[in-house]
Every structure is written in structure tokens, then in C-alpha cells.
Amino acid sequence: MSQKVAVVTGAASGIGLAVSEALSGADYKVVMADVNAAAGQREAARLGAHFVQADLTDRAACKALIDTAVAQFGSVDVLVNNAGIQHVSPVEDFPEDKWNFMISLMLTAPFLLTKYAWPHMKAKGWGRIINISSVHGLRASEFKSAYISAKHGIMGLTKTTALEGGPLGITVNAICPAYVRTPLVDNQIDAQAETHGIPREEVISSIMLKKAAIKKMIEPSEIGAAVLYICSDAAGCMTGTDFTIDCGWTAC
User: Fold this and answer.
1) In this structure, what are the phi and psi dihedrals at residue 73, rounded to the nearest 5 degrees?
2) Mean pLDDT computed over 43-48
3) 125: burial class by Cβ within 10 Å (0-12, 13-18, 19+)?
4) Quick check: is 147 catalytic?
5) Plot region of 222 (φ>0 → left; ψ -120 to 50 → alpha; else → beta)
6) Could you report the per-residue pLDDT of 82-111, keeping only the tens digit for each?
7) What span, in angstroms and rounded, lies between the C-alpha atoms of 62 and 137?
8) What CA–CA distances, in Å, run from 138 to 79, 81, 127?
9) CA separation (Å) from 108 to 10, 16, 104, 112?
10) What is the distance between the terminal CA atoms of the chain, rounded to a whole angstrom?
């Protein structure tokens, strides 16, 4: 069987890098996309992957990413929509341009990439689309209006495309982690500390881990392992789900 081709966005660091490592280790041909060219090229070279610098808020860049993967490897079998950012601010102070940017990156881009990858998966009768959502796709917290709106939106996109993809052999699922030990989350700690007027350590214990039954940060490699499971034959009947890795946050 020929190697499957996976496209991973936001792949230069954090969850995206861990997913790329997992897929590369499982013998996938991986196309890593990120706006950070230096880090992306370095990590792709280390993994033997192909790197594409892409600003996914640009519609043309989304299409070019899928076209590049097809030109390089012949198809797209797996799409992992991971790229994202965070901004913490009360809604009355939330910058409108930041709202537009975040919705474009975390909701519109996954739709476009799904749309452009879809015909290639449909032609093969097999595909896996995995949207990296968040526990905030299932629950809300204050001061994160754009992030939570985008993550709730991606849950709707996941369910709708799962219904459309089922008869075609395409499964679509969302992974919903709580706080993962990544540079994005590390930046959130400082932002939350400033917003709430409390020390960094208190942000971790009193805000980030407060609702979790297991008081620990999730490791990026755990998300990579979840992606491999969803791509496996064992998950062939799993679609339209929120695959929740939240240390018990949503149990209550």
C-alpha cells in the first residue's frame, strides 16, 4: 500500500509539530504548513517532511497549500486543521481586526482547506479530516470571545461535513483538548495574569486547572497519538465526534 499523505497546519510548533512527528513516525508523507518559515523549514527537515509557508487567512494560500500537497505527493488523504492563535480581552475591548483575523484563521481556513481537499479524498473513497478544536469548543470562558466562537463554529463544521462525508468514506472528527503544554498556552498565562491581575502560578492553578479532575497540563504528544488513532482502521466508524481530552473538565 502506498504511503498516505497528510497536511498539517500550524505545524512549526506545539500541537501541530507533535502531530507532524506522530504522522511522520507512522510513515505518512507529511506536508507541514505554518506562517513561521524558519521554524517550519527546520522542523520539516528534521522529520523528512515537506514545508509550505502559508498565511491561511488568505483564501488563495489555502488553495495553494492543497495544490502543493497534490503536486508533491499525488493526493491528500489526511487533513489536520490545527493553526490558531489566542487573544484574551473583555468583549468591550476586543479589537475588531483581531476578531476578523482569528475567525478567518480558525474557522474560515479549515472550511476552505476541507473544501479543497475533499475532491481528492472523494476520488479515493477514503479520507480523514481532523479539526483541532478545544474544550472551549464545548464550554465557554470569559475574555475569549473570538477563540470560543471559532471553536464552537468548528464543531458545527465537523458535524456537518461528517454527515456529508460518511457515504464517501471520509470521516471528520474534532479533538477537544483542555490546556496543552505549548507556546500558545504559555503566552496565555501571561495574558491571563495581566487581565486578572494575578501571578502566573495562580493562573495555572486557579484558572487553567481549576475545572480539571486531573491537575496537569496535557502533553502535545498525547494529541499526536489521538490523531494516529483517528486515522487508523480501528476508528473507521468514528465520525462527527468531539474526541475530548480534557482531564475531566466536561465531566460535570
Assistant:
1) -125, -5
2) 98
3) exposed
4) yes
5) alpha
6) 999 988 899 999 999 999 999 999 999 999
7) 23
8) 22, 17, 25
9) 15, 18, 5, 6
10) 44
